[in-house]
UniProtKB/TrEMBL annotation:
Protein name in the entry: GNAT family N-acetyltransferase
Gene Ontology terms, MF aspect: acyltransferase activity, transferring groups other than amino-acyl groups
InterPro entries: Acyl_CoA_acyltransferase, GNAT_dom, YitH/HolE_GNAT
Pfam family, one: Acetyltransf_18
CDD domains in the cross-refs: NAT_SF
Domain N-acetyltransferase intervals: 1-140
Keywords: Transferase
Originating species: Dyadobacter luticola
C-alpha cells in the first residue's frame, strides 16, 4: 500500500538514488511543497522501497521519478508504484498521462497500457565548444514576457503548464521578435529546456545554452536541432521514450529544442 512521501522520508533518498540521475533530494523537496505534485512511497518495515510522483497541469498529468530500491527489484514494485500514481488521478480531469521511460521501465509501462509516442535522443559534446555570436534578440525574462512564455509553452507542449512553469522563470531568457516571445530557455531547471515556435528562435537559444551545457536531450523529430548539435561536436549516447496513457494530444515535438526533464518532457 502506498502512502504520502513527506519531508521525513528525504533522508532515505540516497539509498534509492540512480547513479546517472541528478540529486533526488531537491526534486522531492519541490514535489513536497508544490501544490501541483503528489509524491508517494511504498515502504516495508519502515524502509522506503519505491517512490514516485505525479505532476499535475491543466488537464494532463506526468508521472515522474518512479524508482525502486536496488535491493528490492524484481518484486513488481515499479508496476505497483505506477498503478498507485495512476489510481490517485481523476481520469476525467486528467485524460492524458505522460511519462518518459528508461530502458528498464519501458516494458513495465507497456504492460500497463502506455503507448510509445516519441523517442528522445540524448547527446554529449565530444569536441571543443565552437564560438557563437549570441543574438541580440535574446533577452533576460521579465514580468512582461511571462504571458508570452506561457503561450509558447502551450503551443509546443499542447499542455497548460503555467502553474509549474511559473516557479522557474526567475533566470529565464526569451527570444523576442517584434515584441513577441518566440522561444524561451531556462538555464537552471531540469535539463535546461528550450521551447520555441520557430527554428530560428530555437537554434539561437541553443547557441546560448551550449555555452554552459555539454549534454542535450530532445525529440528525434527535431531534425534542425539534431543537425545543429552534430555540427557542434555532439554525439548521441542514449535514448529514452516518451509515452502516454489515455487521450492522444496534439503537440509539436519538432519545436522542443531541449526537453525540461524526464519528468515533464
Amino acid at each position: 500500500m502506498h502512502t504520502e512521501f513527506t519531508s521525513e522520508d528525504l533522508a532515505q533518498l540516497p539509498a534509492l538514488q540512480p547513479p546517472t540521475w541528478g540529486n533526488l533530494i531537491p526534486r522531492f523537496e519541490y514535489f513536497i511543497k508544490s501544490e501541483h505534485c503528489k509524491p508517494i512511497k511504498i515502504a516495508e518495515n519502515g524502509e522506503v522501497v519505491a517512490i514516485g510522483t505525479s505532476i499535475l497541469h491543466g488537464d494532463t498529468a506526468w508521472l515522474a521519478c518512479i524508482i525502486t530500491h536496488p535491493e528490492h527489484r524484481k518484486k513488481g514494485l515499479g508496476n505497483a508504484m505506477t498503478l498507485s500514481l495512476i489510481s490517485e488521478l481523476d481520469r476525467a480531469k486528467y485524460p492524458t498521462i505522460y511519462l518518459d521511460a528508461t530502458e528498464f521501465g519501458f516494458p513495465v509501462y507497456l504492460k500497463i497500457g502506455f503507448e510509445l509516442e516519441e523517442l528522445y535522443l540524448h547527446f554529449r559534446r565530444e569536441k571543443p565548444l565552437l564560438e557563437h555570436v549570441i543574438s541580440k534578440q535574446i533577452l533576460p525574462s521579465e514580468e512582461k514576457w511571462k504571458a508570452g512564455i506561457f503561450e509558447v509553452d502551450k503551443i509546443v507542449s499542447g499542455e497548460e503548464r503555467s502553474g509549474v512553469l511559473s516557479d522557474f522563470l526567475a533566470n529565464a531568457f526569451v527570444y523576442v521578435e517584434n515584441a513577441q516571445v518566440l522561444g524561451y530557455y531556462i538555464p537552471d531547471w531540469g535539463d535546461n529546456p528550450i521551447m520555441a515556435v520557430t527554428n530560428q528562435a530555437g537554434l539561437e537559444l541553443m547557441k546560448l545554452r551550449n555555452q554552459t551545457n555539454d549534454e542535450a536531450r530532445l525529440p528525434e523529430s527535431n531534425i534542425a536541432a539534431i543537425q545543429f548539435l552534430k555540427e557542434n561536436g555532439f554525439t548521441q549516447f542514449q535514448t529514452s521514450r516518451r509515452m502516454f496513457l489515455g487521450t492522444k494530444r496534439i503537440w509539436k515535438a519538432d519545436k522542443i529544442f531541449n526537453r525540461i526533464s524526464g519528468q515533464l518532457g
